């Protein structure tokens, strides 16, 4: 029997229930129209083949790790390793959410050809989450300062910077299940994962983190399947004209949503947690995302009536300043994190100025001040010197300093009797379409306003075993580490900044 025949036969095993109706079976519904469409089968794989393939990949990957940990190939770079405490704590949560999202889609989307693909992807995403958790556990055992890796899962759920990824993931798994496919499979996976898993893997390898390099590559080998799922969902939806405006809405939203989360994370990790530099994060993003995805994949959708996303120009011009603005936030708020930082030096300044002309004029003063404030003996905290944190965007949970603090697009508007703040046109328009989806999210000020900073750090649990030394440190090899006592003596109380002018 030919494989395609066998595959069709397997699909025939799908059954309709006699004991409950279709409606009763569907716990969640979708606004998209999927009756009467003929899905293109994204890939014809049997579960047995799938398991064999994945087992082989896992065998190869774990054998390599075993060898690497025995050979002890030298110490990885500290700047990179510490940054990955933040990176992996978020990534593992994104993968797990992707698995949940696929389960929802398999339950909601009727055509069996698509469900089969979603189920396989659900297994892949569980695998990714496990693989990344294994990296965290490996580093917990072998990195010279394991503190921070040991709280990764908890930190991803409560740290202020993780709000950027957490809010995106929560949005993704609570949206219409088919919209989730567009957000996850079209934007996260088709547009950004090459940049993330291939680009970041090259950085990991250049910084001696073989464990992560191998992990990211074996993850990326599954992504082609997820991109195929995205295309299968889109091309199936496009068979019914009533879906076109719904697809357009989802594309408009998720292009911006993923730019502000995954896109920003890529820029930050690629520019600020590396020491061996070749391409800038902006150059990599232009190549992988804007040339390949928007210039290739996305353009092909135009013949079906899909228009380019409304904020495409902003997305491109943001790349000039996005990593730098993100960095002054993440580095400026260092005591509220769980890893060590490495401030910029003269080599970094020179490279940044070459890759991002005007960098020093706009961001140099922050970094000079950062370096002065590193030593706890000086009694100066960069967070207080910069006047505290900015407001946060109710949609993307980024601080409202984008594209650059002096030309921020921050704005506020009323909804009911509450006032909400946004970072950009993109986020404001997302909120306006579905305000109820975003009103409940509690930002840093909702949680900690009026608290003295050492109390915030204690509440977050980011303190070492002695109960006084902070997990986070503003440099890699400090003469003395910052403690809660040092923070207390700076006397910084969390204060909400003024609300920007309210739009009528
Ligand atoms: Fe994944
Ligand atoms: Fe994936
Ligand atoms: Zn925003």
TrEMBL record:
UniProt xrefs under Gene3D superfamilies: Ribonucleotide Reductase, subunit A
Record keywords, A-Z: Monooxygenase, Oxidoreductase
InterPro entries in the record: Ferritin-like_SF, Phenol_Hydrox, RNR-like
Keyword Nucleus: no
UniProt xrefs under Pfam families: Phenol_Hydrox (PF02332)
Record's keyword annotation contains Disulfide bond: no
Residue stretches spanning the membrane: none
Name under which the protein is recorded: Toluene-4-monooxygenase system protein A
Source species taxonomy: Bacteria, Pseudomonadati, Pseudomonadota, Gammaproteobacteria, Cellvibrionales
